[in-house]
Amino acid sequence: MLSVNGLTKAYAGKPAISDITFTVQPGEVVALLGANGSGKTTTIQSICRLLEWDDGDIILNGASTRGSPGFQQNIGAVLGGCRNTNWRLTAKQNADYFARLRGVTGKDVQQRICALHAALGLDTYADKEVMKLSTGNKQKVALLCALSYQPAYVMLDEPTLGLDFTTIAELQKIIEHQSQHSAQGFLITSHDLGFIDKICSKVVVLDEGRLLFRGSFPDLKAKLFTYEFALCLNNNADYKTILETCWQGRYIHQLIDNKLIVNYEAAEQCLPTMHFLHQHRLTPLELTITMLSAETAYQTLLNQKESV
Question: ABC transporter domain location, by residue (predicted)?
């Protein structure tokens, strides 16, 4: 098991992450979500031992990674910017090189590299150095290197960045197969919530360096809002009365430039407001009802600031 316990890190006295705790079990696919600057990259870099943290610990199979030099054989990573590749080598040469660095050699690893190379659509570019590949194909090479030596846990930082739909679908199949049949654990950061929704069973959400949510994907979805109601009346509008009289159930609201914005979960929650407007003969300057995308709904969770 990979366990992050009370992880804390500051830069120049300013906290980047504070008391972050979660686990990744063998065969588990976990999403690490958060806005830019929330602490996702600091967390992943700490797990990979690319930086030293200030407090807390990271435990891999019962031992702290700080005192276990062999932990690198059990951790694979794809970091932003495809930094885990040698640009003067081909994709297969890269995968073989990084596997050998971790002491993984032999027929099995070569067969695995060939299978992953084909699944990621890299066979067409087999003779090209990485430096001559497109951004999307460089990302594929980084994925190949991280998966080739079959580490126990794989850190994927924005793995779908620059990939086409076909390759994303293949990546999903690879992750599902590796987690189910090889018990590999995955920790994935991504802004592609559609991709995350399909493959992750557990979610960790960070906000401004602190843990905002930790739990199952169904539990996260239960916290998200489905609709947004936006209403703009004249400058003398009594929005407080509208909220107190008309809105029931779970919702959040904000008032921006004389516009009332309500995020809510059930379609019928807005009906009392529509009746109120009709009953009091109020003509809106603007009235919109929108079904939120997954990404926008996720942002409403950040607005709630509910620590779990």
Answer: 2-233
